[in-house]
Amino acid sequence: MSLMKSWVASANDAAHPFPLNNLPYGVFSTADGEPRCGVAIGDMILDMQIAEESGLIALTDDPLFDVPFWNALMEEGPAVWAALRARLTALLGKGAAEQAKVEVLLVPMGDADLHMPLAVSEYTDFYAGMQHAKNMGAILRGSPDLPANWLHIPIGYNGRASSVVVSGTDIHRPNGQTKAPDAEMPSFGPSKRLDIELEMGAIVGTCSELGQPITVDEADAMIFGYVLLNDWSARDIQGWEYQPLGPFQGKAFGTSISPWIVTSAALEDFRAPTPPREKQLLPYLHGSKDGLFDIELEVLMQPEGADKATSLSKTNYSRMYYSAAEQLCHHASGGCEMNTGDLLGSGTISGPDRSEFGSLMELSWAGREPFTLDTGETRGFIEDGDTLTLRGNARGKGFTIGFGDCSGKILPAKTWG
Amino acid sequence: MSLMKSWVASANDAAHPFPLNNLPYGVFSTADGEPRCGVAIGDMILDMQIAEESGLIALTDDPLFDVPFWNALMEEGPAVWAALRARLTALLGKGAAEQAKVEVLLVPMGDADLHMPLAVSEYTDFYAGMQHAKNMGAILRGSPDLPANWLHIPIGYNGRASSVVVSGTDIHRPNGQTKAPDAEMPSFGPSKRLDIELEMGAIVGTCSELGQPITVDEADAMIFGYVLLNDWSARDIQGWEYQPLGPFQGKAFGTSISPWIVTSAALEDFRAPTPPREKQLLPYLHGSKDGLFDIELEVLMQPEGADKATSLSKTNYSRMYYSAAEQLCHHASGGCEMNTGDLLGSGTISGPDRSEFGSLMELSWAGREPFTLDTGETRGFIEDGDTLTLRGNARGKGFTIGFGDCSGKILPAKTWG
Prior knowledge:
homodimer, alpha+beta, six-stranded mixed sheet, 10 helices, 27 strands
């Protein structure tokens, strides 16, 4: 696959995140209008609501784009997903017969605010990065040994959908219970060990049925697309609360996603295998396709007042041990119904070296080894006013599939109103 | 408070679960119609959709009952909740001027199928019963000692909303990964240790704001009502998966609720205090009201083919250590946004004696001490074809506030389709 040319000139730059090969799906608004679905092409956004109303896009009897999220399309399933992608490719490709009709429906990205691209039904977070699991074991328990089930189960836990927000949304530092190891009683107040987790989010497009398990290949076909995902984490709250039933308030105050859903179709050429299995997986977790993707990832931090961000870490989604399809298959293995709009966090993505670690907990080794920003400031964890950004790009020959930044700024904790 | 008389004669029986004092909210359908909201009064259901269409109920500019769940009313908040209760009390009370107009809107309960009374937004399950926590510690870890945080935090974890079903829905035995202690590898197949958990479910009526903690009193006022809740659990799946991130597939295949939402208003006279605090709670968990309710609870089991169910256990909701208001306050303490339709499971309710235990794990002491049913059969856990039922009643002077049975029958596990 090489760069597919568009008549939208900015989309033809080899480094631009939104070429015709990408066509990611978002929700935008301009000064005078309500949020509506849009497709990114170069520096422009195609207004899908008007495109549908005008008849340029007419895939189904009922409208898909009269709501400000992409769930209605997702519910239609893979055949309609493919038909839409083919139609958009035709409308936006170089030499398109309908260029003049489409041109008037383009909105400059600079004029647009971006919103949540989907209505999140439920949010599940996994723990599928081996290096991250080993690092957390070494930091918290003094041993990098994996939990006994880790090589057999794509371990996950249910998170909170209500706190998933789009990039650009400020996050208030959470309050919570914490307890110092030598304290007799816990105390309550703002988290002092606020962290990020660099993850990918897989978006479930079609549903499974309550009581009915699915195969890995069926799961793979159900995944509509991917976003970058920052699973903000309060390590001190999490440390005190998580035994015996897992993370709760330490993970419930915010989860940021990038604004554009990059479809599975756009990523197809970037499929990458999971690493060699250290223990053979049970047959229900076997699939026929490479389930990871070669996506370069980066974490950046910008303190309040600094004029640019410091790059903290660079890694790749293909570092994960379990794929999203394996995770989704396991998620439904007990008969759990999976639905349109379910969001699956991959788990923190860390490579083998510190330069590839995907959380501050790992980068500063639990604050014991603070790192230095380009401004000269040091950090163990996040301070109020810091902006954290995730970036992701899949690099093709002469083109880039980008996700758009996943950013969030930390504001001070709120108290009771 | 004594029995409030209705012109619906069956509602005036001291033992009837649905007197005028109760007025619980459900969703029903009859042979010829779509599901719609209804209010139980004696052996009848008041059709709220037609009551609203006909103008008998007119609380808001926009309709509340054109959808088959109670979320639209819940969103309106406590003033409208109180107004509706007052209006229903007037319409259904003895001597009501509009009796003739209301009478034609009553449907015999025997002609109705009951459906989910709410659209569940997110489901959270807590672990707030001290006796249950001690029993599980004794069974699983050989010690009844509570986890270090248990007396300080109303411990909870996020569950799966998509598998919450109404009473009467059959539940397929889940498949899952399990591993015997002496086995080298895990295996995959139907759960062999299928269990129930006797719980109450609290339904969140109004929303909190992302980033904003709430007080216990604010939380109490946000709770719209309560249902009985059976948190079906696969102990063998749970035992292998739950470290380190908590229950996942062992709890994701089904959660049953009773069909009628008993409002907080109907339960007001049955408030009961939480037991003495063994450690003082942090100030954010202090509220001004008694947060539990005096509700008698019972667990019954009926094997396939038996003509009646065996009572396994009787206890009371007031046995809990934490109230739903405390749980909801804690849930929002880190800034987690709580929403209309969120469902909070209380945690398993067990009293001090075996006759009060709220799970089969406890009743059979992990299967080591099977119990005998009235049919002469013994059980450690649930077998295919067994129906499990929860019952709940608050007993007033001359009247009863009932919940309606929370039942589910276990069907064999499904395999891949």
